[in-house]
Write a structure and sequence with these properties.
The structure is a single chain. By secondary structure, the protein is an alpha/beta fold. It is 35% helix and 20% strand. The chain contains 15 helices and 19 strands. The strands form five sheets. Strands 9-10-8-7-6-5-4-1-13 form a nine-stranded mixed sheet. A three-stranded antiparallel sheet has the order 14-15-16, with helices on one face. Strands 17-19-18 form a three-stranded antiparallel sheet. A hairpin with a 2-residue loop joins strand 18 and strand 19.
Length: 446
């Protein structure tokens, strides 16, 4: 398939890459601006707290479910996820048994529940599981919680194209999944060799075509910036090929080199990595090409095409952001299942055990595996609401706050816009959000 066979640049879009503001403009991850952040969590708020809030949830309140499957057959050197290296899907059987036990313990404490209309599988690549294991897990989720069969359901899954094939996609579509997130990272062969992720374009392209034929509603392709030996020209070539596949959404991630925390990254030498100036050029290249192709920056490196539901929600002021990312509907409570999964139920946030041993030990003792958490106070909930408004492009009210020279300075820098007692981020402000949050900590309580 020719690279540009599916999509041409839309008229009126600028084709020239734009240099970001000098200084700290960069890709911003959800983890960098997360609130509450991991350091807010406390050991004394654990699985017992989750049991209590589950028991008092309104029976009609919707609940989203995220399943974390940590097993990975591949050894990608850029990886920063908490994965469990494994070679055979049979090694996942004990984990799947514990997952079912976690579902049973949760369901016993829920007084009632409408059909689950938002489901996500992620963590390591879920396609590590055999098709039979996928079916069994899906059936168990349906038996414990009741999965919606409505057309409007939102069932998404993360896939490594090296682990999936046509049969995998057909099986997932038959189960009920209707959204796919495919990881690409880079198509430049030198970069792929450096990160130990050899993934020919034809492999991903074939899956993209099959997903379209099967009627998957939305397809997201993800790329990573700042990888070893990555150049603006090479990234530009990758972007042209990815844009030619016509995905509904493209997500940009930033590589963070932290070999002291992530063992897999120790195989990457620091002198292979692009410097600060090159990283800014990489971001400018990505922004310019995606703008030209008609994609709109929703936030946190996520781009969606102009006719995408998220883009329309952003325009209409109905865009929301929660633990599962951006959505066109209000974010609901989230139940996280599996090792390292996070749940948000009302004002309670709880994170499951970070190691496979601790996760399994808790469930073997018939305890929910939550180990750390936090109850947000009313002030903290207001702070989070302000942050979500900024992330979603909405203005926040400044009328109850004293005037601050910081706001005027940020406005002069072109990072925020002030009008009629309200403040909103500009397009450039989105790329410097951590800097903004630090500057606004005093006047806004952010």
């Amino acid at each position: 398939m020719p690279v540009h066979a599916k999509r041409a640049a839309l008229p009126g879009a600028s084709g020239l890459p734009r240099e970001p503001l000098s200084g700290a403009g960069d890709l911003v991850s959800a983890r960098e601006v997360a609130y509450p952040a991991p350091h807010h969590y406390r050991d004394e708020v654990s699985g017992q707290a989750l049991e209590s809030v589950l028991a008092t949830r309104p029976t009609e309140a919707p609940l989203a479910v995220k399943v974390r499957l940590p097993f990975c057959r591949q050894a990608c050197r850029f990886c920063a996820s908490q994965c469990v290296p494994s070679h055979s899907s049979r090694q996942a059987e004990p984990y799947l048994t514990r997952l079912d036990r976690e579902m049973v313990l949760v369901r016993r404490r829920l007084p009632g529940l409408p059909p689950v209309s938002r489901l996500h599988w992620g963590g390591g690549p879920p396609a590590f599981l055999s098709l039979e294991q996928m079916s069994d897990l899906f059936d168990r989720l349906d038996a414990r919680f009741g999965l919606s069969g409505a057309r409007e359901r939102d069932f998404s899954i993360e896939l490594d194209p090296r682990e999936a094939d046509m049969l995998t996609l057909r099986h997932l579509q038959a189960l009920g999944f209707n959204r796919l997130n495919l990881g690409i990272q880079e198509l430049d062969t030198r970069v792929q060799q450096a990160i130990n992720r050899i993934q020919p374009r034809a492999l991903t392209e074939a899956l993209v075509d099959e997903a379209g034929r099967l009627g998957f509603r939305e397809l997201t392709l993800s790329l990573m910036l700042g990888l070893p030996f990555q150049t603006p020209q090479g990234l530009g070539d990758t972007l042209e090929q990815v844009i030619g596949m016509a995905p509904a959404r493209i997500r940009l991630y930033r590589y963070r080199h932290r070999p002291e925390h992530n063992r897999a990254q120790r195989a990457i030498h620091r002198d292979w990595l692009p410097g600060a100036a090159t990283r800014r050029r990489l971001l400018a290249e990505a922004r310019g090409r995606l703008d030209s192709a008609g994609y709109v920056h929703i936030g946190l490196g996520l781009y969606a095409h102009r006719n995408d539901r998220l883009t329309q929600a952003q325009i209409n002021g109905t865009l929301a952001h929660g633990p599962l990312g951006f959505t066109q509907a209000p974010a609901t409570d989230l139940l996280g299942l599996g090792m390292s999964a996070t749940s948000r139920i009302g004002s309670l946030w709880v994170r499951n055990a970070d190691t496979l041993e601790a996760y399994e030990d808790a469930l073997d003792a018939s305890r929910l595996p939550g180990t750390r958490g936090i109850y947000l106070t009313p002030d903290q909930r207001r702070r989070r609401a302000k942050l979500e408004s900024l992330l979603c492009g909405r203005a926040i009210d400044l009328s109850a706050l004293p005037a601050s020279p910081r706001l005027e300075r940020l406005s002069a820098e072109g990072l925020i816009k002030l009008s009629a007692g309200h403040m909103a981020l500009t397009a450039e402000g989105q790329w410097r959000l951590p800097h903004l949050l630090e500057a606004l900590a005093g006047p806004l309580g952010l």
